[in-house]
């Protein structure tokens, strides 16, 4: 079993992941569709996202666990730690470059002007026209693929799970729990949408607009925070700064 501190770290990372484009922005966008909401369609989307993340996590955990065992000495070496420091600095620079005034202005325009064809497609797939959830499953798979390059909290969680002194299937259960927590906020919103849809839809629409405007900024902040943590960890491990007692 893992200790409470590790469990708390994984929960926090999962909640950070729950605010991403695929786990929150698209679900809110789907929940704001007019007409009668079909729960099965939203659940098909969310479960596809969770399963895709879980599958990717299993592969990466197996690889990471083997790499840690084989290269344990290398991971503590100065060249590796300097490389980690450089990577952290690069991520912070990428974060700064992503969150520019021009990027925020373009996001604001996207939030104010919806795409008519896209909105019509959303209405059609969410209102029960047709008898398949395949378009939403494809949308979920596409969202996960687009997020592969920015799933830094998930990679951090995989790193934590891989270093735990536990044996299979415990890492798989931890990944499964992580993925369920990751889609939990969207599921809570789904229940709330069903219970009080008239009151909640205006709120969801405002959230949708805000998330659309700030999605890139949020991603930039996440990348910057991960970069800072990598750099700070490397500096401490190199002994350049004493952060002990």
How many alpha or pi helices? 11
State which percent range the strand residues make up: under 5%
Mean pLDDT: 77
| Overall shape | globular
Largest sheet: none
Terminal Cα span:
28 Å
- Run of helices and strands: HHHHHHHHHHH
Pfam families: SfLAP
Protein name: GAP family protein
Keywords: Membrane, Transmembrane, Transmembrane helix
InterPro entries: Gap/Sap (IPR021315)
What does this structure look like?
This protein is mainly α and 245 residues long. Helix content is 81%, strand content 0%. The chain has helices spanning 4-17, 21-31, 39-70, 72-75, 78-98, 101-112, 116-126, 134-147, 152-162, 170-195, 197-238. The chain crosses the membrane at residues 6-31, 43-68, 80-98, 134-161, 173-196, 217-241. Keywords: Membrane, Transmembrane, Transmembrane helix. Pfam families: SfLAP (PF11139).
Put the structure in a nutshell.
Helix content is about 80%, strand content about 0%. It is mainly α.
SSE arrangement:
Layout: H1 4-17, H2 21-31, H3 39-70, H4 72-75, H5 78-98, H6 101-112, H7 116-126, H8 134-147, H9 152-162, H10 170-195, H11 197-238
Relevant terms:
single chain, 245 residues, mainly alpha, 81% helix, membrane, Gap/Sap, transmembrane
């Amino acid at each position: 079993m893992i200790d409470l501190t590790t469990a708390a770290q994984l929960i926090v990372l999962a909640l950070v992941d729950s605010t991403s484009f695929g786990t929150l922005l698209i679900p809110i966008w789907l929940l704001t569709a007019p007409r009668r909401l079909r729960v099965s369609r939203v659940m098909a989307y969310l479960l596809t996202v969770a399963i895709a993340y879980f599958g990717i996590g299993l592969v990466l955990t197996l690889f990471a666990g083997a790499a840690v065992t084989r290269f344990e000495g290398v991971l503590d070496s100065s060249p590796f730690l300097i490389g980690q420091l450089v990577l952290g600095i690069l991520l912070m620079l990428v974060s700064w470059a992503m969150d520019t005034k021009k990027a925020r202005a373009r996001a604001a325009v996207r939030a104010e002007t919806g795409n008519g064809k896209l909105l019509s497609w959303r209405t059609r797939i969410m209102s029960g026209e047709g008898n398949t959830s395949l378009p939403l499953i494809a949308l979920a798979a596409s969202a996960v693929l687009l997020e592969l390059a920015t799933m830094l909290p998930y990679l951090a969680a995989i790193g934590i799970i891989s270093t735990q002194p536990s044996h299979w299937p415990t890492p798989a259960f931890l990944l499964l729990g992580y993925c369920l927590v990751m889609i939990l906020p969207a599921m809570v919103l789904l229940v709330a949408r069903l219970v009080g849809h008239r009151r909640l839809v205006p709120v969801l629409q405002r959230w949708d607009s805000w998330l659309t405007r700030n999605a890139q900024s949020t991603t930039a902040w996440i990348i910057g925070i991960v970069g800072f943590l990598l750099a700070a960890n490397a500096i401490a491990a190199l002994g350049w700064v004493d952060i002990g007692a």
